[in-house]
Amino acid sequence: MTLSDADGAFLKEILRRLADQPLTPEDPLYVPLHIRPEAEDPVAKIQLLIESAALESVQLFSGFKGSGKTTELFRLRSTLQKKGFQVLYADAVEYLDTGSEIDVSTMLLAVAGGFSDALQKALGADLAAESFWQRIGNYLTRTSPQVTEVTAKLGAKGPASGILGGFEAGLDVKMALKTTPTFRRKLRDFLANRLGELKAEVNRFVEDGVKLAREKAGKPDLPIVFLFDSFDQIRGTWVNEREVMSSITQLFASYQGLLHLPYVHVAYTVHPWLRFVRPGDFTITTLPSVRQWENDPPRTTYPAGRDILRRIVAERLSAEGIPRIFGGSDPQSHPLADELIAMCGGDFRDLLRLFRELITLVLTWTCSLPVTQEVVQRAIVNVRRQYLPLAMDDVAWLAEIEAQRDAELPSTSPEDVGRLTRFLDTHLVLFLGNGEDWYDIHPLIREYVAEQAKRQKPPGERTA
Length: 464
Hints:
By secondary structure, this protein is an alpha/beta fold. The chain has helices at 5-17, 42-52, 69-82, 104-123, 132-143, 171-179, 181-191, 195-217, 241-255, 274-277, 303-317, 321-326, 335-342, 348-366, 373-385, 392-404, 414-425, 443-455; strands at residues 57-63, 86-91, 224-229, 265-269, 284-287, 429-433, 437-441.
């Protein structure tokens, strides 16, 4: 049936509802992925660790792209707030250059600055006389007269001396930290033998902030949590990926103690590959993809996983969506919708992508409802195309992962770790779990990998 104007408007609204963005638990589109009897709940685990710690703690939280880390952090924030915690949130991308190496002084400044900004947002104008950015700007001006001006690009505000080069303290420090490599280099060199001083400055500011928050709340023992999200987006570029990975590994291996904040429970969103390069060194709570099948040869359907994904789709498509788009009368499921769901690999982002592609095809190609098998298959083909083609050495490793349901690394070199991380971040490989961790390749590429692997010579050692 040809689309009516009402159908077109309805489908465009569905496209908006299928947008890939973090949701809060209060959002009507939010569906809790892990709050069900058969699933482990990573957020509940972090919450327990925070609540059972005395005064302060550090939690490392991770997951591959599309696993819903930020949405789950929002759920943690909401749950803790209901229990009387003061929860602050900052996005690391606002403070750090995602394409550059990270050192401990830069990280300390970003974390303390993020804490300062989040505290000011929570408490309003009642923040102490100076923000952390102002305080650290004054510290650098006071202690580094021997360091020359960084750059004139930010616009000098006074005499060109010290690391700041006469820039206004506060906003300019924050801006330069993210955007000016020269500033970061001079800062790193200047602070190399002054980490103790810097940490003391950070601690004093955080302690003042904690005191202020407790006084404002009238609760001398108010527990405070700081969520430093999106640090896992510090990835470097294809030119310096190896150096960036090495700097991040060193940061957490050598300086994790400095990332504690006094009287604050801090949760960092970190890179999932840390578990590969330093096994046993870190306790990282990692979000898996939603499991759609059992870890057995035929990949027997796992009903609980399928049903939670059905529920997500039903919420996104609205109460009338499935019958209106696919036909039938069941508002919760339809065989054609299930075909799309089965191809997402339990990955939330790919689930949304498949249904967005379907709606786009209806609006721009068939212009009719309900959809047919042909449209569903075209949507799958179009999304699969975004994964292909694959290099032959990648095919060999992916075929091995598919056969073994494991992702053993030939070494912990940055090259091997980076390659496996790329597989996981692009969802070619899925991180799953049912009491123990296991891996499988994405349903969208399963057939392609099998066909390409058959064309290769008899299996040998995979290549790096």
